[in-house]
Design brief:
Elements (H helix, E strand, L loop, with lengths): L1 H19 L14 H4 L4 E2 L8 E5 L6 H5 L3 H8 L11 E5 L2 H4 L18 E5 L4 E6 L2 E7 L12 E4 L2 E3 L3 E6 L6 E3 L3 E6 L5 E6 L12 E3 L2 H8 L9 H10 L12 E2 L5 E5 L4 E2 L2
Parallel strand pairs: 4-15, 12-13
Antiparallel strand pairs: 1-16, 2-3, 4-5, 5-6, 7-15, 8-11, 8-14, 9-10, 11-12
């Protein structure tokens, strides 16, 4: 009798585990507890309201390159995401017209507030995008990752006052906790009343606001050095912005050490974090 009872209990426990808490699934699926990370079609950017796009669910063995060929960078920028963060089970926005989307930018070609500045950086948190202006005209722009909810990037007009090409975080470590989080090509634009510094720098872009207040830009060279992927770095926007704003063409030789600057570009941070549709 006792053996029958124990057998029944064991079967009941196994059934409950299989039904209520499966350890694995054969098909990928989005995590309902974190839709903003895994379903980027829910992220609302005002600039996409008039641009036709479709949602694509990433299946096993699919990559940006296998899906979109040479236009994979267009889709990556459209979603403000890097290759390292695209994986089966997530959903991306795909522009219907990939050719037209190659020139996509949510920032204005001319920005009156920047006209009196030789160089001016505009960071739009609502669009998760950053632009480089010269005398009010947009020279180039790129996706950016600003502060996550609860750690929003401060809004206002600031000035870059320091550069540090080999900067690393003093507070946060890499995912495997083997070293401090790299912040290559760092440009400091604000020091808060709590003495916390805010930088523009290289970082991972997961397709949503993700930092502790700094502003991150693509740098697959940094990702290759730290994570070993991607094998062939392509997206290196942090290097481009750094060279344009505080590079050796503007200042003396860059040794890679922390250096305070004068007369560096103004930085405007505007907007609020994007809305996530339910």
């Amino acid at each position: 009798m006792l053996r029958k009872v124990l057998t029944f209990v064991a079967v009941a426990m196994l059934f409950s585990i299989v039904v209520y808490n499966p350890s694995a699934t054969s098909e990928p699926g989005a995590n309902p507890h974190d839709p903003a990370k895994e379903d980027l079609s829910r992220v609302e950017y005002p600039s996409l309201a008039t641009i036709p796009w479709r949602a694509h669910f990433i299946k096993p063995h699919e990559t940006l390159e296998s899906l979109f060929g040479d236009d994979w960078t267009v889709v990556a920028r459209f979603n403000r995401i890097d290759r390292r963060h695209v994986y089966p089970g997530m959903t991306l926005k795909v522009p219907v017209d990939l050719v037209a989307a190659r020139s996509y930018t949510p920032l204005p070609a001319e920005y009156p507030e920047a006209k009196r500045y030789g160089k001016y950086i505009l960071i739009d948190m609502t669009e998760q995008w950053m632009g480089a202006y010269e005398h009010g005209k947009l020279k180039f722009s790129a996706p950016a990752a600003t502060g996550a909810p609860g750690h929003e990037t401060p809004v206002g007009v600031f000035h870059i006052d320091a550069r540090h090409r080999t900067h690393t975080s003093s507070l946060y470590k890499t995912e495997d906790e083997t070293g401090q989080y790299p912040m290559d090509n760092a440009m400091r634009f604000h020091i808060g009343p709590d003495n916390v510094s805010y930088w523009i720098h290289a970082r991972d872009l997961p397709g949503k606001p993700a930092s502790h207040g700094c502003v991150g830009l693509y740098d697959e060279g940094m990702q290759n050095r730290v994570y070993g992927i991607p094998e062939e770095p392509v997206l290196v926007d942090s290097q481009k912005f750094y060279a344009w704003a505080v590079g050796e063409n503007e200042y003396e030789d860059d040794t890679g050490d922390l250096e305070e600057l004068e007369g560096a570009p103004a930085v405007e941070v505007r907007g609020t974090n994007p809305v996530y549709r339910k």
